Amino acid sequence: MQIIKTLKSISLIAVTTSIFLLNSCAKKEDSFINRKVSFNEDWSFHLNDSLVDKDTIGAATKWRTLDVPHDWSIEGKFDEKSPAGYGGGSLNGGLGWYKKTFKIAKEDINKIISITFDGVYKNSEVWINGHYLGKRPNGYIGFQYEMTPYLNYGDKNNEIIVKVDNSKQPNSRWYSGSGIFRNVWIETTDKLHVGQWGTYITTPKVTAEKALVNIETTIKNQYAEGKKATVTTTIFKEDTKVTTVTQDITINANGNQTIKQLAEVENPALWSDENPELYRAVTEISLDDKIIDQYKTSFGIRDFKFDLNKGFILNGKQVKIKGVCMHHDLGPLGSAINTRAIERQLEILKEMGVNGIRTSHNPPAPELLQLCDKMGFIVMDEAFDMWKQTKTKYDYGNDWDKWHKQDLIDQLLRDRNHASIFMWSIGNEIPEQWSETGVEIAKELAAITRQYDKTRPLTAGMNPPVNMNIDAVTLQFEKKNVSINPLAGSGVLDLIGYNYAHQTFEHHLENFPKTPFIATETTSGLQTRGYYDAVSDTIKKWPVRWDLKFTEGNPGNTVSAYDQVQTPWGSTHEATWKIIKKHDFLAGMYVWTGFDYIGEPTPYEWPSVSSYFGIVDLAGFPKDVYYMYQSEWTNKTVLHVFPHWNWKVGQTVDVWAYYNNADEVELFVNGKSVGKRAKKGDDLHVMWRIPFEAGTLKAVSRKGGKVVLEKEIKTAGNPSQLKLTADRSTIKADKNDLSFVTVDILDAKGTIAPNANNEINFSLKGNGKIVGVCSGDPVSHEPYKGTKHTALAGKCLVIVQSGDKSGRLELTASANGLKSSTIVITTE
Questions:
Q1: Per-residue pLDDT tens for 384-428?
Q2: What is the mean pLDDT of residues 450-459?
Q3: Omega into 361 within 30° of 0, i.e. cis?
Q4: Active-site position among 382, 432, 521, 693
Q5: E strands of 500-597, at which residues?
Q6: Which of 22, 286, 417, 490 has its CA 20 to 30 Å from the CA of residue 440?
Q7: Where are the beta strands (DSSP E) in 190-239?
Q8: Residue 318, Cβ neighbours under 10 Å: how many?
Q9: Could you tell me if 615 and 340 are in contact, meaning their C-beta atoms sit under 8 angstroms apart?
Q10: CA-to-CA distance for 76 and 90, rounded, in angstroms?
C-alpha cells in the first residue's frame, strides 16, 4: 500500500479546529494552565469496503462527519455469519479511517505539541501531514505521539489521519467494538515540562495524625541547552492548600530527570470505599520566576494490606470486598466511552452495595478509574486476557512478543496514582498457567509491575489455582489428590486469585498457608430479566459442560430469573456469597458480572447476542438477584418480592422474597395470609409455593412483631399506556451529557404490564438526539442506534444526548394501541 502517496492526494474537507495554549501563568490553582484540550469534535470517518477500496483512501473517498469517541460496530446490523461470532456479539468489525484538519497558533511554534489517544480498537496507525507516527495493536491501551516536528502554524492546515484495522476476526471472546472509542486529546507544553504520566505519588507512612506523601516527578527537557528551574508541588484538599514543597533542579539539554519530594499532611482525610476522600497535587515548573508548566495529580491517602487470616484491611478496618467484574461496553452505546454512562452504571452498582470493580480483562478507560476514585470502589486493574498463547485466532497473543512489555508499562504509569486501585492482575485464565513457561512469563510481568509500583499486591485470575478432584454427582471438594496450579505455587503472586472453584475456598489456608486469598471471578449465574421457570428450587447447570454445545434450554432462549441457573464451572449467586461471608480470611469476591454485556451469550448461541451473566441487564434494569445482594451488602432496609402476578388461574407459582432487618415475612393473596416465612441457617431468601389468584400479592416484613416494610404486586390488565421516567431531568448542554429514560408499559390503572412486549417509537424535539435504545433482551436483533425498540417484560430504555445549546428537549414515546407519553428534559 503506497500510503504516503495516497495521503498526499487527500482533499482537506474536514471542519477546522484551532488549538490555542493558555499562556497566562497565574499562580492560583483555579487559573490552571490547561496543557490538555479535547480533540473529539468534527472528525471525518470512512468505513472501507475493502473489495472496492483495497484498504486505501483517496480523493474520491466518501466521508461522514462525526465526533469521537465512536464505535462503528454498534451502528451495524446483527449478523449470524459475522466473523466475530456470537461470542463477539454477532456485530462486524472491518477497517475504518478517521481524519481531521486543524490549525495551530503561531505563538505555539516553540511549544511541544502531542496527540493522546486513550484507546483505539484496534491496530491503529497514525499520520500527521503525511508523516507516519506509529502503530499500536492493543485496542485498550492509551498512547501518545509527539507531532511537533511535522506541524504547520498560523493559517496553514494540519491533517491527522488514523487507520483502524479490526478486520481480522475473531480477535476477542466478547464484543470489542471498533474505532476511536475513547477520548482524544491535544497536549501543548513548554519544552521543559512534566512528562507524560510523569508523577508517582505514594503514601509510605499513614497514621490518623500524619501522612508522609512521597512525590516522584519526571521532568523532560527538550531545549537544546541545560536549564535551571524550580519545581514546586502544592497539595490541595478540594480548594484548600494543605502543604507545599519546592526544589531547585539543573537538567541537561534533551534530558529527563526524576526528582523526589517528601511532604507531610497533618490529620489526613483517609480514602475508603465509604468515604472516598481525595487530594490533588499540583506540580509547577518555573523558569526565571515564571511558571511554564503545571501538572495535576489526583491521589488518596490510605493504608491497606491483605492479611492471610483477616482478609482485606483498609485503614485498620476489616473490609469485605463485595465486587463485580465489568466489561468495557456500555450496552446500547457500544464501546464508545461516555463518562455519564459509566457513572450511571457505578451508581446502580453502589446502590446494590458493590464496593469493588474488576476491569476485566484489559486496561480500562481513564474515566472509569477517575469515577472509582471519587465514588469509592476497590479496583482490581487487569492487564491481559491472554499472554503468548491465543484464545481466538487473531487476538493479542499474536502481538505479545513485540508489545506486552510496553503495554504493561504504559498501563502502570498511567494508572498507578489512582486511589481506587488496590491490586494489579497480570492475566485472566491464561492457558500457560499450567506450565513452567507460564511461570517464567509471570515472573517477567511481576518484575515489570514491581519496578513501577511496589505499593500494591499482584494477582492473576486462575481457573483454578488448585486442580480439583470433583465428584460429578455431589460436587464436593476432596482435599486428597489436590495438585497446585504451577502459577499459583510459583510464589510469584502476592494474592492467590480464584476464578470459580468455590468448593475449594474454605481449604485455602491449607493449600496456600503463606498467601492471602482473593476471588478474582465468581458465580456465573444466568438470568433473563422478567422470565421465570415454573419450579424455582431446582438447580440447573447450563450448558452441561463448557466444551459441549448446549441443546436444551427454554423457548426464546430465555433463562429463569430465579437464582437457579448456573454454568457448570460456577455457582448460583447465593452459593458463593454464603461461603465468602462466612470466613474472615476470604478477603472478598468479584462476581461475574455486574452488568450484562454484548457478546458471549452463554449458555446459548445465535440468535442470542448478549450475555445473561449480569446482575443488571444491558439496559441498566436490575434483575431480581440484585436485591439479594442489596439485602446482604447494604444497611438499607430491603423487601423485594417476585415474580410478577400475571399467571393462569390455578397455576402454581413460586414466590420469593429477599429481605433484611426483619425476623420474618408474611405473604397475603387478596388479603388472605398464605403463611409466614423466616430465613433459617444461612438462607438468603424465603419462598412460598401457591396457586395463582388474580388480584393483589402483598408481603409484610416484621421485626419484633412490628411492621418493617410492605410491598404489593398487582395483577395487571391489558397494556394501556406508556410512562416515561428520566434518571435526570436536567443535563448539561455540552454535547456529551445523557439522560437515561425508562419506559414502562402500564395498564389503565397504572400497574406495570409484566408480559408486555410492544414496539415503542420515539421522537425528540430540541437541540439533542437519541443515541441509544434497549430493552435488555439478549435475543433482540433490533439496532441499538435507532428510534424504535421492543420492550422486554414491560420495560424499555431510551438514551437522550444533549446538544450544545441550552433549552428544552421533548421526548415522546408512542406505540400502537397505547396512550403515548412525553417528558421534558432541560439542558443548561
A1: 999 999 999 999 999 999 999 999 999 999 999 999 999 999 999
A2: 98
A3: yes
A4: 521
A5: 517-523, 540-541, 565-566, 586-592
A6: 417
A7: 192-206, 210-221, 227-237
A8: 12
A9: no
A10: 10
- Does 104 score more than 80 pLDDT? yes
Instruction: Report the alpha-carbon distance of residue 108 to residue 105 in Å, rounded.
Output: 6
How far apart, in whole angstroms, are the C-alpha atoms of residue 760 and residue 820?
Answer: 9
Alpha carbons 379 and 201: distance in angstroms, whole number: 18
Radius of gyration of the chain (CA): 28
Structure confidence at residue 54 as a pLDDT band (50, 70, 90): confident
Give Cα 814 distance to the centre of its chain: 32
What Å distances lie between residue 328 and 163, 181, 244, 389, 737, CA to CA? 22, 10, 38, 23, 19
Measured distance CA(230)–CA(294) in Å, rounded: 12
One-character DSSP codes across 332-355: GGTTS--HHHHHHHHHHHHHHT--
Q: What percent of the chain has pLDDT over 70?
A: 94
Closest CA to 221 of 151, 157, 293, 312: 293
Q: Are 675 and 666 in contact (CB under 8 A)?
A: yes
DSSP code per residue over 44-99: EEEE--HHHHTT---TT---EEEPSS--SGGGS---TT-TTTGGGTT---EEEEEE
Peptide bond into 69 cis (omega under 30): yes
Burial of 266 from C-beta contacts in 10 A (0-12 / 13-18 / 19+): exposed
Q: Torsion over CA of 25, 29, 32 and 33, rounded to 10 degrees? A: 40
Q: How is residue 211 written as a grid cell?
A: 501522612
Confidence at residue 56, expressed as pLDDT on a 0 to 100 scale: 87
Query: Which residues, other chains included, contact 426 with Cβ-Cβ below 8 Å and sequence gap of 6+?
Result: 383, 384, 408, 442, 445, 446, 449, 458, 459, 460
| 436 flagged as catalytic | no
Separation of alpha carbons 312 and 323, rounded Å: 13
- Residue of 159, 429, 432, 574 with catalytic role: 429
Please check whether residue 698 is in contact with residue 667, taking contact to mean a CB–CB distance below 8 angstroms. Answer: yes
Running DSSP on this structure, what letter comes out for residue 547? Answer: T
Lowest mean pLDDT across 154-163, 478-487, 768-777: 478-487
Cα–Cα distance list, 796 to 107, 406, 670, 828 (Å): 52, 43, 30, 26
CA distance 783 to 62: 24
pLDDT of residue 52: 65
Q: Measure the CA angle with vertex 357, ends 590 and 441; round to 5°.
A: 75
Overall pTM surpassing 0.90 (yes/no) = yes
If you average pLDDT over residues 137-147, what whole number do you get?
Answer: 98
CA distance 739 to 604: 32
Helical (H) or strand (E) element with 287: strand 279-287
Q: What is the pLDDT of residue 5?
A: 35
Is 521 among the catalytic positions?
A: yes
Question: Which residues on neighbouring strands pair with residue 53, listed in sequence order?
Answer: none
Distances (CA, A) of 583 to 310, 500, 539, 588: 9, 17, 25, 10
Sign of CA dihedral 330, 333, 335, 337: negative
CB atoms < 10 A from the CB of 527, how many?
A: 26
- Cβ atoms within 10 Å, residue 615: 28
Residue given cell 503506497 in the structure block? 2
How many CB atoms are closer than 10 A to CB 528? 25
Task: Please give the Cα distance from 258 to 283 (Å, whole number).
Answer: 13
Res 482: pLDDT: 67
Q: Using a CB cutoff of 8 Å and minimum separation of 24, what contacts does 576-583 make?
A: 576/502, 576/519, 576/522, 576/523, 577/629, 577/632, 577/684, 578/682, 578/684, 579/502, 579/505, 579/506, 580/320, 580/505, 580/519, 580/522, 581/320, 581/632, 582/506, 582/682, 583/505, 583/506
| Burial of residue 146, with CB atoms counted within 10 A of its CB: 0-12 exposed, 13-18 middle, 19 or more buried | middle
Query: How do 565-566 and 540-541 pair as beta strands?
Result: parallel
Contact 10, 159 (CB under 8 A): yes
At 187, is the secondary structure helix, strand, or coil? strand
CA atoms of 741 and 733, how far apart (whole Å): 17
